[in-house]
From TrEMBL, chain A:
The keyword Ribosomal protein does not apply. Residues 9-130 form the F420-non-reducing hydrogenase iron-sulfur subunit D domain. Pfam families: FlpD. This is Heterodisulfide reductase subunit MvhD. Keywords: Iron, Iron-sulfur, Metal-binding, Oxidoreductase. It comes from the Bacteria. InterPro entries: MvhD/FlpD. The keyword Cell membrane does not apply.
UniProtKB/TrEMBL annotation, chain B:
Residues 111-205 form the Methylene-tetrahydrofolate reductase C-terminal-like domain. It comes from the Bacteria. InterPro entries: DUF5981. It comes from Candidatus Desantisbacteria bacterium CG2_30_40_21. This is Methylene-tetrahydrofolate reductase C-terminal-like domain-containing protein.
From TrEMBL, chain C:
GO terms for molecular function: FAD binding; methylenetetrahydrofolate reductase (NADH) activity. This is Methylenetetrahydrofolate reductase. GO terms for cellular component: cytosol. It holds the Pfam family MTHFR. Keywords: FAD, Flavoprotein, Oxidoreductase. It comes from the Bacteria. Its cofactor is FAD. InterPro entries: FAD-linked_oxidoreductase-like, Mehydrof_redctse-like. Belongs to the methylenetetrahydrofolate reductase family. It catalyses: (6S)-5-methyl-5,6,7,8-tetrahydrofolate + NAD(+) = (6R)-5,10-methylene-5,6,7,8-tetrahydrofolate + NADH + H(+). Pathway: One-carbon metabolism; tetrahydrofolate interconversion. It comes from Candidatus Desantisbacteria bacterium CG2_30_40_21. GO terms for biological process: methionine biosynthetic process; tetrahydrofolate interconversion.
Length: 146, 226, 294
């Protein structure tokens, strides 16, 4: 099953660094999996736990948050806040039974296009090694979301 | 304020698993401030439960709401229509709120989403500490405003045990020795003589040892008409 | 020893007490053996009360066994496990079973022991427990109700000469004396300078003070005490001395140190006596005593 499985992955990227890096990866024509969907936020400090949960609830197989390098957040410490929230959300995912390994956080600067591509590949590989989000399967069967 | 924390999702799930339509209702007072059961947390709890139950093959319906205070009829009563439309209520208020809902909606199962922990305050952002045990007979006046019942792990009244180390309680290196704090504070206030008095055993009948405590005040009392 | 503990205290003789730890379970063989060797060597045997918050055979029962064997028991009572009703009731029970000495302690916190989820009590503190004994002696319980037959105990308490904050310890020490403690047994002390400093304060009253002597069995134990046991500090010289002991001779070294300190305390009249703790190795106490020459 997992061979054919193409995971749906959502990346929450901050405007200043992560999105810049993703953009750069694109213009450098670096190869990274097309199934990573980017959601741009002004800062990863805007990442609320509920955003992460909703992504999974709506069927994402994996989610990652990308912020500026630690110490370089454009809003001082939004990325640190995000890091803690990601940690709590990982625990919740474990409790729910989806597994915290479907979620992660990375830090990079706008100039690190190759790093973005690498992270996107890494997450895709990791999720491929798991089963698809069981909620997505259920949604398909029932022909709809909530 | 009342400080509470969320129960594990699996524990909540087990309570509500047999109900199809559940109203998850938060409280916008203490538990919102301690980030355990306000509007935001209701969203998180409901989302987690939906996912956890769906993984189990269920199709639950969660209705989310949050009222100003679950410990007052005035606000609880606004939930009536919503409660009528569900099979069960999950309250993310403190135990007082959970029980208020249970009393107001006698035909509906009401479950707690939180563990009500203590009366205290956020000492730092994200760190809450217990400061009052609600014993019903406040002695803070003689202890320099630091409660030995709540802040000494053994609730000692006549001075410290021998167990503190570097100002920390024998129970945990993270916890200040309450008696050390009391002593230092009274010293600073030049009121150490207050501690010389030998205090008799505490009268615990004002604590909860006489059963549920109630307080009646004639000047503000009027009979409930509803 | 046939003399009552309170008479020994009054006599001005150098007082020696030791400890008996009730077993966890009902096999009392080893404990009986310890009682047999110690009963004629010490003036009193202190029976610990669910020591370190670990549930064990009750100290009242063991005190009774000691009287049966002709020893002089000192009943330890902590405030951790019993409320004022149970404490008073046990005091009455101990009295009718022949126990005449009681040592009142706060008790370790429940979380340090083997029933971490238990509801701890601390309805009374150690000062109030002493007051309760005194009240029973006066013929009434602490609720003010008359007793049909009272008690008469020699009441002791504890002190920590090397505590974190000595000022607040002295506060409690004063209260214990005022309430009626007649003798004190200290927490283990190794630093004689600190013990002397404590005694300078304690000598302002005429209560009897027994210095706590805890027999070291290894350098590791000394380090453990320093790191984990509040109010106990083993000076570096003693740790080195223990570490320098020949293999298999560490206990012997610990006994030597204990004997040396007992001798010093007696010769220099630092305290009125000693309380020897040899946790589980009570059989070495007679030898320590003969080594110290007391
Ligand atoms: S160490 Fe301090 S706070 Fe802890 S039990 Fe003893 S006196 Fe109370």
């Amino acid at each position: 099953m997992s061979e054919q499985f193409e995971p749906e992955i959502v990346a929450f990227c901050c405007h200043y660094c992560a999105y810049g890096a993703a953009d750069l990866a694109g213009s450098m024509r670096l190869n990274y999996p097309a199934n990573v969907k980017i959601i741009k936020l002004p800062c990863t400090g805007k990442v609320d736990i509920i955003y992460l949960l909703k992504a999974f609830e709506d069927g994402a197989d994996g989610v990652f948050v990308v912020g500026c390098l630690e110490g370089n957040c454009h809003f001082t410490d939004g990325n640190i806040k995000a890091k803690r929230r990601v940690a709590r959300a990982k625990k919740l995912l474990d409790e729910i039974g989806l597994g915290g390994e479907r979620l992660d956080m990375f830090n990079m600067s706008a100039s690190m296009g190759p790093k973005f591509a690498e992270v996107a590949r890494e997450m895709t590989e990791r999720i491929k090694g798991l089963c698809p989000n069981p909620l997505r399967e259920k949604m398909k069967n029932e022909g709809g979301g909530r | 304020m009342i400080v509470a924390e969320q129960k594990p999702i699996q524990e909540i799930k087990a309570m509500i698993a047999d109900h199809q339509k559940v109203l998850v209702v938060g409280c916008a007072t203490c538990v919102t401030v301690c980030m355990a059961g306000g509007e935001k947390e209701v969203g998180i709890i409901a989302s987690c439960l939906r996912m956890a139950l769906r993984i189990d093959g269920k199709e639950p319906q969660m209705i989310e709401d949050c009222i100003q205070r679950q410990c007052e009829w005035e606000f609880v009563d606004t939930l009536k229509d919503k409660v009528d439309g569900v099979d069960a209520v999950l309250s993310s208020a403190c135990g007082v709120g959970v029980q208020a809902l249970a009393e107001r909606f006698p035909n509906k199962p009401v479950y707690p989403a939180l563990n009500t922990s203590f009366m205290g305050m956020p000492k730092e952002h994200g760190l809450w500490v217990e400061n009052c045990r609600g014993c019903g007979n406040c002695g803070l006046g003689r202890f320099g405003g630091i409660c030995p019942i709540a802040r000494c792990s053994k609730g000692l009244l006549n001075g410290p045990c021998g167990g503190s180390q570097n100002g920390k309680c024998e129970v945990s290196k993270e916890m200040d020795c309450g008696w050390q704090l009391i002593y230092e504070r009274l010293k600073r206030l030049d009121q150490l003589e207050k501690l010389e008095e030998i205090l008799p055993p505490k009268d615990w009948s004002t604590d909860r040892d006489k059963g549920q405590r109630r307080m009646y005040r004639g000047d503000v009392y009027y009979e409930q008409t509803v | 020893m046939s003399k009552q503990f309170k008479d020994v205290l009054a006599s001005g003789e150098f007082v020696i007490t030791s400890e008996i730890g009730p077993p966890k379970g009902t096999n009392i063989e080893k404990m009986l053996h310890h009682i047999e060797i110690l009963k004629d060597k010490v003036h009193g045997m202190n029976v610990t009360d669910n020591q370190s918050s670990v549930m064990r055979l009750s100290s009242v029962a063991v005190c009774h066994i000691i009287t049966d064997h002709g020893g002089e028991p000192i009943l330890q009572m902590t405030c951790r496990d019993r409320n004022r009703m149970a404490l008073q009731s046990d005091l009455l029970s101990a009295y009718v079973l022949g126990v005449r000495n009681v040592l009142c302690l706060t008790g370790d916190h429940i979380s340090l022991g083997d029933h971490k989820g238990a509801k701890q009590v601390f309805d009374l503190d150690s000062v109030q427990l002493i007051a309760a004994v005194k009240s029973l002696e006066a013929g009434q319980d602490i609720g003010g109700n008359k007793l049909d037959g009272g008690v008469e105990f020699c009441v002791g308490a504890t002190a920590t000469p090397e505590a974190d904050n000595m000022d607040s310890q002295f506060l409690k020490f004063r209260k214990k004396i005022k309430t009626g403690a007649g003798f004190f047994q200290t927490q283990a002390v190794y630093d004689m300078v600190k013990l002397k400093a404590f005694m300078e304060y304690a000598r302002q009253s005429d209560v009897k003070i027994l210095a706590g002597i805890l027999v070291l069995v290894s350098a590791g134990m000394a380090r453990y005490l320093n790191a984990n046991v509040a109010g106990v500090t083993v000076p570096q010289e003693l740790i080195d001395e223990m570490a320098g002991a020949e293999k298999g001779k560490a206990l012997q070294k610990g006994m030597e140190i204990a004997a040396r300190q007992i001798k010093q305390i007696k010769d220099e009249k630092i305290c009125d006596g000693v309380h020897i703790m040899a946790i589980g190795k009570e059989e070495v106490v007679p030898e320590i005593l003969s080594m110290s020459g007391v």
